[in-house]
Design brief:
Elements: H1 8-46, H2 60-88, H3 98-136, H4 141-183, E1 188-192, E2 215-216, E3 221-223, E4 226-228, H5 238-241, E5 247-251
Helix pairs in contact: 1-2, 1-3, 1-4, 2-3, 2-4, 3-4
């Protein structure tokens, strides 16, 4: 038995840099689209229409799908190359299989639309709070519109960064697991936690990402009572997934 990534923490840092780089390549586009939702709502408020009715996802699905696609395929390719190096003693470029491509398409169809709905619903809820506060304070339509615009500029910045990183991390680990599964040589997978004070460890969080046991490749990790196939698995709760920086390793 041998680990595919012989220095797990180093590999985790390498992977973190990669998914952050992929996220940054798409973050500004997501930011503009979220800000655009707030701007549309502000125009509606100014005109005396219902602001939340103006919030539409538009091209957000395309942007989020692009993050998932790039991360899934890049991490999948890197994992396959790493497995080839360990099992054959040399590194070579590999082609992604039709099964891998199909798995990626299934992942994007399953999760991109859900994420767009979550983002849209959250945006509507936040705008509704601003509008209600404006009503309570006796603001004019123009003043409510200004408040919505100001919130949009602030919130689109940090939300786009969080969304891009979360989706890049999750899709990357999903693509990595798909490659490892298709290799036919991986026996088990390991949860590689981040070795710093920000890691969920059960002391500073309701979740613990530091004591996760290895499992067979086709079985889920048990993380704070939840079943996750990989770090960032979208089937997990927000507390277990958002801003997670853990990685996945393999044993052959």
């Amino acid at each position: 038995m041998a680990k595919v990534f012989r220095r797990p923490e180093l590999e985790r840092r390498i992977q973190e840099r990669l998914y952050i780089r992929i996220a940054k390549a798409h973050e500004m586009r997501i930011r503009r689209q979220i800000a655009g939702m707030y701007m549309a709502a502000a125009r509606a408020a100014e005109a005396g229409r219902k602001p939340t009715a103006a919030v539409k996802p538009d091209q957000l699905a395309t942007s989020i799908s692009a993050v998932m696609h790039d991360s899934y395929i890049q991490f999948g390719r890197n994992t396959q190359n790493a497995i080839v190096e360990v099992t054959r003693g040399k590194k070579r470029a590999v082609q992604m299989s039709p099964e891998f491509e199909a798995g990626m398409g299934l992942y994007i169809r399953k999760y991109a639309g859900r994420k767009v709905t979550e983002v849209t619903d959250t945006t509507k809820a936040r705008i509704a709070i601003i509008v209600q506060r404006g009503i309570d304070d006796g603001l004019t339509n123009a003043e409510v519109a200004t408040a919505i615009r100001e919130a949009g500029l602030i919130e689109s910045a940090y939300r786009s960064a969080m969304i891009a990183r979360t989706e890049s991390h999750a899709a990357g680990n999903a693509g990595s697991l798909e490659s490892a599964t298709e290799s036919g040589v991986v026996m088990a997978k390991e949860w590689i936690s981040t070795e710093d004070e920000r890691t969920r460890d059960g002391d500073n969080s309701d979740y613990d990402h530091t004591n996760v046991a290895n499992v067979p490749i086709d079985e889920p990790f048990i993380v704070s009572g939840e079943e996750l196939m990989y770090p960032g698995d979208p089937s997990g709760s927000a507390g277990n997934v958002i801003n997670c920086r853990c990685a996945i390793g393999y044993v052959v």
